[in-house]
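Notebook p. 47: complex prediction with D-glutamic acid.
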Amino acid sequence: MTATAPIGIFDSGVGGLTVLRAIRARLPALPLVYLGDTARVPYGSRSPETVRRYAVEGGRFLLERQVQMVVVACNTVSAVALDALCDALPVPVIGVVEPGAEAAVAATRSGRIGIIGTETTIASRAYEEAIRNRLPTARTLARPCPLLVPLAEQGWTDNDVARAALAHYLEDLRREEIDTLVLGCTHYPLFKPLLADLLGPGVRLVDSAEATATVVATRLGAPTGEPVEPTFYLTDLPHTFSEVAARFLGGPVRHVFQVRY
Ligand code: DGL
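Predicted complex, structure tokens below:
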């Protein structure tokens, strides 16, 4: 029997563990190699040029790990650097924007779709274009929410501070009566209960991590066999890593290596 080649999952830091978690839930026997560029996170406030450079460096590192595919968990990289990665890597590259947009179009009834993400993701308009390519009549409203990444990493996803920040960011999305909200950042699935509470049952939450995991599972088919533990490569190992990572993964993170490339 030939061993299944791993897939690489690339992120700017720990947030991409939400994507890894969703893929693992569907494909437990598929070997996964995760790279988090924790030394240079956050990407979400950086220029597209810098994000592209970081992304290609990370993609090359994963390629050396013999991956058969690279999944770009980071929304910011998916929004501004997917072309650069596709050009640089001789394996399929899947980002989170197209699957997220597809899921949003499937979810909306009124065509009024909100998108939240990092500053660089929102400035790129990548989600808006991907949605309009599928549904030209869609009315999209996109808002950057820069405070949500540090709040999620702090574990402040359901307290007064998180509630105030979200209420502020969502103000005009609510006024515009969106019926679908795209969570266009790796960290935002952690706010789902609070978002559901603030927006009410009339607004569907689209989790790009889940949508991407479905696309990966459809493309690859589930390998049979025993579940395998992922390997985690990080460019920096801050002392809070295990605690923060466990929050995103929903369990302990083992097989962690610090790397330089
Ligand atoms: N991973 C990033 C994203 O999904 C969020 C963290 C960052 O800014 O690097 O856009």
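Notes: The two ends are 33 Å apart (CA to CA). The beta strands are 7-11, 32-36, 69-72, 93-94, 112-117, 139-144, 180-184, 204-207, 231-234, 256-258.
Next step: compare against the earlier run before touching the bench.
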